[in-house]
From TrEMBL:
This is 15-cis-phytoene synthase. It comes from the Eukaryota. Coiled coil: none annotated. Its EC number is 2.5.1.32. SUPFAM superfamilies: Terpenoid synthases (SSF48576). It catalyses: 2 (2E,6E,10E)-geranylgeranyl diphosphate = 15-cis-phytoene + 2 diphosphate. It is an enzyme of class 2 (transferase). GO terms for cellular component: plastid. GO terms for biological process: carotenoid biosynthetic process. Keywords: Carotenoid biosynthesis, Isoprene biosynthesis, Transferase.
């Protein structure tokens, strides 16, 4: 099941990791289509020693045994609140909005040239594997373009650790090493050219490391589980592999100066877009995942509609399956509706790629319905011309200012 990053990354390819499979090899670019398989474990402990002390646990894990449990949504919203508070505090201290345009102050000489080359390479990867999204970024300021490309490439590389051509050789230790690289990157010690682009980005925008750590946790989940007991587990997984991208991206995309919405509400709505997109991926790829022995649908909800794993593996579209799918699609669309509120509050130069993503993924849900809910043998596909036709629609929506501004404009 193919994942999406930063909204519109629907066009996919592969960035695989070469070498010994332990996270120390070089990164190579390959053709093909990435897939996101996954599962959820409610508790993911990263208790491996590193230097002095023990690696901290993810912010999105269960409480210790014997303590009361929070739902996955409550835990995720705690992370969102912390991200928004961090941005608000930086804005208060600086006296200006840290979510406005940021101009990089690059060092002169060969280092600056190498950094420029790194960003160019990130843009090339984005253009090759995420054409629709890349086109949408062209309205953004050059600094924001480069930063979003750098985030895209890091997410793609992370995703391909467990879904790329070398996925069979990836171990928990390899993911620990990848997270070590992340920590070094945020300390200004990149391992390679593509890391350098992100290392520069996080010094120019108020991007926090926690969503990146949580995404690595999502990859850890992929290694150990292929079933979801309920939607709470599914929600946590969707946050880790897709909702995190919204938290990474909002500081770069920026909030409209005229917006009256709170920072936290916009972060919540960016999270909703990631959840909606990942739910759409899951519904689109049911048959593909089943052929890999994986079912990423809430087991309790399947049972409520009289369905079981055996029905998924049989791959037959029945009235029970249609009813189940209608219910799942309805929920995904509810998340899209919530996400739309946040898109309107973004800086005007950043709205187009996000609207493009939202419309495209809504069309995937439409395609599932058009296929009579047969996502076992048919892939819900949005054709090239339909994608292109949606771009002017997305652009038109991007021109509409935040809702609070419209009454003032009408006076």
């Amino acid at each position: 099941m193919q994942s999406l990053r930063v909204g519109a990354w629907a066009d996919t390819g592969v960035l695989g990791v070469g070498g010994d499979g332990n996270g120390s090899g070089s990164v190579v670019v390959c053709g093909g289509r990435g897939r996101r398989g996954g599962g959820v474990i409610v508790s993911v402990v990263r208790g491996r020693e590193r230097g002095h002390g023990v690696r901290a646990q993810s912010s999105v894990t269960t409480e210790a045994a014997g303590r009361s449990y929070l739902s996955a949504e409550q835990k995720v919203l705690e992370v969102v609140a912390k991200q928004a508070a961090m941005v608000d505090e930086q804005q208060r201290r600086s006296g200006i909005s840290t979510l406005q345009d940021v101009r990089p102050d690059l060092t002169a000489g060969s280092a600056a040239e190498l950094l420029d080359e790194a960003y160019v390479r990130c843009g090339e990867v984005c253009a090759e594997y995420a054409k629709t999204f890349y086109l949408g970024t062209k309205l953004m300021t050059p600094e924001r373009q480069r930063a979003i490309w750098a985030i895209y490439v890091w997410c793609r590389r992370t995703d391909e650790l467990v879904d790329g051509p070398n996925a069979s050789r990836i171990t928990p230790t390899a993911l620990d090493r990848w997270e070590d690289r992340l920590e070094d990157l945020f300390r200004g010690q990149p391992y390679d050219m593509l890391d350098a682009a992100l290392a520069d980005t996080v010094t120019k925008f108020p991007v926090d490391i926690q969503p990146f750590r949580d995404m690595v946790d999502g990859m850890r989940m992929d290694l150990v589980k292929s079933r979801y007991a309920n939607f709470d587990e599914l929600y946590l997984y969707c946050y880790n592999v897709a909702g995190t991208v919204g938290l990474m991206s909002v500081p770069v995309m920026g909030i409209a100066p005229e917006s009256k919405a709170t920072t936290q509400s916009i972060y919540n709505e960016a999270l909703a877009l990631g959840i909606a997109n990942q739910l759409t991926n899951i519904l689109r790829d049911v048959g593909e995942d089943a052929r890999r022995g994986r079912i990423y649908l809430p087991q309790d909800e399947l049972a409520r509609f009289g369905l079981s794993d055996a029905d998924i593996f049989a791959g037959k579209v029945t009235d029970k399956w249609r009813a189940f799918m209608k219910d799942q699609i309805k929920r995904a669309r509810m998340f899209f509706v919530e996400a739309e509120k946040g898109v309107r509050e973004l800086d005007k130069d950043s709205r187009w790629p996000v609207w493009s993503a939202l419309i495209l993924y809504q069309q995937i849900l439409d395609a599932i319905e058009a296929n009579d809910y047969d996502n076992f043998s048919k892939r819900a596909y949005v054709g090239k011309w339909k994608k292109l036709a949606s771009l002017p629609i997305a652009y038109g929506r991007a021109l509409i200012p935040p809702p609070d501004v419209l009454p003032r404009l009408a006076r």
